[in-house]
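Dear colleague,

Thank you for sharing your sequence with our group. We've completed the structure prediction you requested, and as agreed, I am returning the results in plain text so they can be pasted directly into your records. Please verify that the sequence below matches your submission; if there's any discrepancy, let me know and we will rerun it promptly.
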Amino acid sequence: MSKKRNDSFEDDGRTIVDMSGIEPPNLFGFRPLPGRSKPAAPPAKEPEQDRPWEQPPTLSKKQERSYLFGALAAGLLIAAVFIILGAIVIALMTTFWRS
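Please find the predicted C-alpha cells below.
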C-alpha cells in the first residue's frame, strides 16, 4: 500500500546548507581533477563558542581511574560473553559429532 503524498508542501526558499561549492570526489585519489581549481577563499573567523570537546579534561585522578576500570570491565564482560558462547558451541558440536 502506498502512503498518501502531502501535496500541500510549499518551499519557503530558506537555505539550510549552502551546497554550491560541493564537487564530486575524484575516483582515483586525492588529486584535483584537471581543469578544476578551487579559488582561494579567505580564512573564515570562527565565532568563539563553548566547545567542550576542545577543553582540557577536568577529572580528578580517582574519576579517571573509575572511567578507565569501568570501560575495561565493560569490554571484558562483552569478551566473556563471546568466549562462553563459543565454548558452549564447541562443547555441543563435539557432543553431537562424537558418534
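Summary note from our side: The chain has a mean pLDDT of 80.

Kind regards,
the structure core
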